[in-house]
């Protein structure tokens, strides 16, 4: 997950040429021992952050830095994901096995708290040795941190097996099989009787298979639908209602919708469900196993008011009485960012991201006066979004969507747009994840960090003197937005000056 930024400056000013504020790190410390308190300690090893391999860079290969150059909780980089995938693929016993591998998830193996404390004490901001327990004779400072590891969920399309791999990441060149990948397989195991989440590539294949099925085409004609390009086939996990749904098979029960013949690019096709049709698809072999046209239900009439377009295109008008509101910070923001480490108003934390959960916030702490740094939360995230429809009628009784576990909140995140999704002086973070075939995909400007005015923090007026004091409230917001089918989810973590935080 790489970091980018934008700020409220004239267009001629580069928006991402340098960090907003650069904190002092071990790699940028002064070389003068008299000015460098870290270098005066005799027990400190040589510099831990080494330069890139110039030879590899000259060859144009993505280079992953040494383990110490990335914080243990830093999101996996694009190079690290490529290396993890190449390592697992190279471990395949035969070409057939390797070709059948589908990569559902590549995630960071998050280390235990002791390793995180060690990193925050001596290797990375906030550089606080007090985070470690005190020992007799003083702390032992290691020369390096443990290597980072990645956890991969791999589906074998040929054998219908799901396996979990752990790969150790070292200094590597992210190249294809036969190249210079230096990952090391730590463990691998097949997990029986499970099915991993379906992928967008499988969704597209399933839609094509269903549309090409003759009984389905006949059912569409009965409903007056001639143009199958207007039909939307959304595969849903079959669930586990009986042994027929057992995870020994990779099954989907698609739901059908149909757009109108309008040329609207943002038409809401989900407003016109095609009901009364039962379809069961084998997602491993991409064949229709069951089909039944159970009931002829009329299609809902076309309604432009349901579309995601301007008011003029829906028979109305947009508001014209709202005047421009400009959010400016001429002196820049009050937060400081170093990589994925954020400091603001006594708060500090690290920003992470996974393809399943989306935004993850680590090591949340508050500087509480003389008490120093107080840990508040080790890990914050939205681990699941369950949507039980609760309708006893067919097919709705089986609609219990797990939007994080089955679809992935992170994989469905948006690239945020400055001026609409976020206002003011903005720091953006990119997100990287794997696609089904093992390639790396990047969502630019995926996570937004910015400050917001939040009304009055406190106010008091003395009734005797008529004098009053008032303070504005400021809050820091970290957010991302994702779309799962027809649902938009916005996740906003707010941090307040009153030493509290909450999720909206």
TrEMBL record:
InterPro entries membership: Cu_amine_oxidase, Cu_amine_oxidase_C, Cu_amine_oxidase_C_sf, Cu_amine_oxidase_N-reg, Cu_amine_oxidase_N2, Cu_amine_oxidase_N3
Ranges for region Disordered = 1-50
Residue limits of the Copper amine oxidase N2-terminal domain?
71-170
Molecular functions per Gene Ontology: copper ion binding; primary methylamine oxidase activity; quinone binding
- Name the domain of life this protein comes from: Eukaryota
- Give all residue intervals belonging to the Copper amine oxidase N3-terminal domain: 196-299
Write the protein's name. Answer: Amine oxidase
């Amino acid at each position: 997950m790489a970091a980018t930024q934008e700020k409220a400056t004239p267009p001629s000013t580069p928006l991402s040429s340098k960090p907003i504020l650069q904190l002092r790190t071990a790699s940028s410390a002064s070389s003068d021992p008299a000015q460098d308190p870290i270098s005066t300690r005799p027990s400190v090893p040589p510099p831990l952050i080494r330069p890139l391999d110039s030879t590899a860079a000259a060859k144009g290969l993505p280079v992953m830095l040494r383990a110490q150059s990335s914080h243990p909780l830093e999101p996996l980089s694009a190079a690290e994901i490529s290396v993890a995938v190449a390592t697992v693929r190279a471990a395949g016993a035969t070409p057939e096995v390797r070709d059948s591998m589908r990569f559902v998830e590549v995630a960071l193996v998050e280390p235990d708290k002791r390793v995180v404390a060690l990193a925050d004490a001596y290797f990375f901001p906030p550089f606080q040795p007090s985070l470690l327990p005190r020992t007799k004779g003083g702390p032992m400072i290691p020369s390096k941190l443990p290597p980072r590891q990645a956890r991969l969920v791999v589906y074998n399309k040929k054998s219908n097996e799901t396996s979990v791999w752990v790969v150790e990441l070292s200094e590597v060149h992210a190249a294809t099989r036969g190249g210079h990948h230096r990952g090391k397989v730590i463990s691998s195991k097949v997990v029986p009787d499970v099915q991993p989440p379906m992928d967008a590539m499988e969704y597209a294949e399933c839609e094509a298979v269903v549309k090409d099925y003759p009984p389905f085409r006949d059912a569409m004609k009965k409903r007056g639908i001639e143009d199958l390009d207007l039909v939307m086939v959304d595969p849903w996990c079959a669930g586990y209602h009986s042994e027929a749904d057992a995870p020994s098979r990779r099954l989907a029960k698609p739901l059908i919708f149909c757009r109108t013949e309008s040329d609207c690019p943002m038409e809401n096709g989900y407003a016109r469900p095609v009901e009364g049709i039962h379809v069961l698809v084998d997602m491993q072999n991409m064949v229709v196993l069951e089909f039944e046209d159970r009931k002829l239900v009329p299609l809902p009439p076309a309604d432009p008011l349901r579309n995601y377009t301007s008011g003029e295109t829906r028979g109305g008008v947009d508001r014209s009485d709202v005047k421009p509101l400009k959010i400016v910070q001429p002196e820049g923001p009050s937060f400081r960012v170093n990589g994925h480490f954020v400091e603001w108003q006594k708060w500090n934390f690290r920003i992470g991201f996974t393809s399943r959960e989306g935004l993850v916030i680590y090591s949340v702490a508050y500087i509480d006066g003389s008490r120093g740094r107080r840990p508040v939360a080790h890990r914050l995230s939205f681990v699941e979004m369950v949507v039980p429809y609760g309708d006893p009628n067919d097919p709705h009784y089986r609609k219990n969507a797990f939007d994080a576990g089955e679809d992935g909140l992170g994989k469905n995140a948006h690239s945020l747009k400055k001026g609409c999704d976020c206002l003011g002086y903005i720091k953006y973070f990119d997100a990287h994840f794997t696609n089904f075939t093992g390639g790396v995909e990047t969502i630019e400007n995926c996570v937004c960090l910015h400050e917001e005015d939040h009304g009055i923090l406190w106010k008091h007026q003395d009734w005797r003197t008529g004098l009053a004091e008032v303070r504005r409230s400021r809050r820091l917001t970290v957010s991302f937005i994702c779309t799962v089918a027809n649902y938009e989810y916005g996740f906003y973590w707010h941090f307040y000056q009153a030493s509290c935080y909450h999720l909206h």
